[in-house]
From TrEMBL:
It comes from Rhizopogon vinicolor AM-OR11-026. The keyword Iron-sulfur does not apply. This is Kinase-like protein. Keywords: Kinase, Transferase. GO terms for molecular function: ATP binding; protein serine/threonine kinase activity. Residues 11-289 form the Protein kinase domain. InterPro entries: Kinase-like_dom_sf, Prot_kinase_dom, Ser-Thr/Tyr_kinase_cat_dom, Ser/Thr_Kinases-Pseudokinases.
Amino acid sequence: MLNDLVGSITKVGNYPVARGGFGEIWKCTHETDLGTIMVAVKSLLLYASDEVGEAMEKKTKRIRRELKICLRLKHPNILPVHGYTSGFGPFMAIVSPWADNGNLTTYLEREDTSLTFVKRFQILRDIAAGLQYLHTNNVIHGDLTGPNVLIHGDGTACLADFGLSLLYSDIVSISQASWTSAFHGNFRWLAPELLGEPEDNLPVRPRKYSDIYSFGGVMLQVLTSKVPYYYLSEAVVTLSIYTGVKPSRSRYPAFSDKYWHFIEECWLAAAQERPSAERVVEVISDEFDLLSSSM
C-alpha cells in the first residue's frame, strides 16, 4: 500500500540539503505512532510546461505507479520508500529513511584514513548485493553513483534513486530535458553508450550493462576515496567518456592489479561482455571473505 504521509511530514530548515539533476532532497521529520523519526523527502525538478493539461494527471499516475514498484522492493541494501507527501512541488514527493552517514562520496571523504580494505569491500559487497537484487527483479538503477549510495549509521550501504532517471525522462517534457541532461554532476560514473544520440526523438535508456559500467566507477571510488576522473573538469570528463578514455590508474593511490582488472571488465566497450550483477557479487564477496579471513 502506498502510504499518504501528508500532514505528518515537517521540514527541518528552510532549504534543501542537496540538489541534483532530478530534484531536491529535504531533511524532514515524520511523526509516527512510535514517535518522531528523521526522513529524507525527494521532490522532482520540473518545468512550467510540465504542469499544464491532461498530461499532468498522467504524469502523477506514472509517479504513483513507480512508487508502488519501489514499495515491493525489500532488501537491506535498497533504500525503502515510506510513502509520499505534498508541499514540495506540483507532484507528490518521495519519503525515505534518513541516512545518518550521508552519501558514499561525502562518507569516503570524511572517513578515508580510517577505512580498511575489509571495510571498503564490505561497502562494495552491500552495493553489489543491492544491484543484484534490482536486476533480479528487472529493475534498472540508471544512475549508480557515489551520491546515490547512502550509508546508514551502522555502516550499511544501500542504493537510492533507482529508476528515478527513467521516471524523470518520462514525466519531463522531451523538449525540456533528455535523459542524459539530468545527469549534471553524475557523468563521472556514466556508461559511454548512454551519451549516444536519441532515436526517433526518444531519450537513450540505461540497461543492466550500463549499471555494471557505473559499478566499475563506484568500485574505483570506494577503493581510493576519489571519484572517477577527479583530476578533470566536468566538460573534459564528458568528452573523455564519449571518446572512450577511462580514468588513469596512475592518478589514483596504488591498489591490487586484480582489483583494477575487474574494474576494467566492468568498463568493457562491448557492453554485453561486461560481468553480470551475479558475477559482481561473486567476485566482491570472495574478496571480502579472503580479506576478512586474513585479519
